[in-house]
Amino acid sequence: MATHNTTLEYLTTTKIGEKGQLTVPKQFRQDLGLGTGAPFAVLRLGDGLILLPEQRRFEHLCQKVSSILTAAGLTPKDLLATLPESRRRVYVRHYESRTLRARRSQREK
After folding, report:
1. Per-residue pLDDT tens over the stretch 29-72
2. How far apart are CA 63 and CA 1, in angstroms?
3. Do residues 78 and 93 lie in contact, with contact meaning Cβ atoms separated by under 8 Å?
4. What is the dihedral sign for C-alpha 44, 49, 55, 56?
5. pTM to 2 decimals?
6. Which of 6, 39, 52, 53 has the fewest CB atoms within 10 Å, i.e. is most exposed?
7. Do residues 68 and 79 make contact, with C-beta atoms less than 8 angstroms apart?
8. CA triplet 20, 25, 26: central angle to 5 degrees?
9. Terminal Cα-to-Cα distance of the chain (whole angstroms)
């Protein structure tokens, strides 16, 4: 995982536009590698807002999941071994009941 600068610093002041849009200055978009349409999570912290690029949020989530799995002593091989049973349970939960209902419906006709 990439490491990120955790320094808190004042960057600039911006205004909310007519349609509720904020402009992130070009310098900071370039520094963070943000292009047009880049998704952001908007978090409320008291009376303030935190704008967090979704990619960073995803990386943070991956780091947390990795830490939890490592602490539990699980390896990627352990997780992959659970996939067949997990897939079977998902199939049963999402599709088998629909299939049974459809069959009952066909019999009732």
Report:
1. 888 888 888 888 888 888 888 888 877 767 777 788 889 889 99
2. 7
3. no
4. negative
5. 0.42
6. 6
7. no
8. 125
9. 57
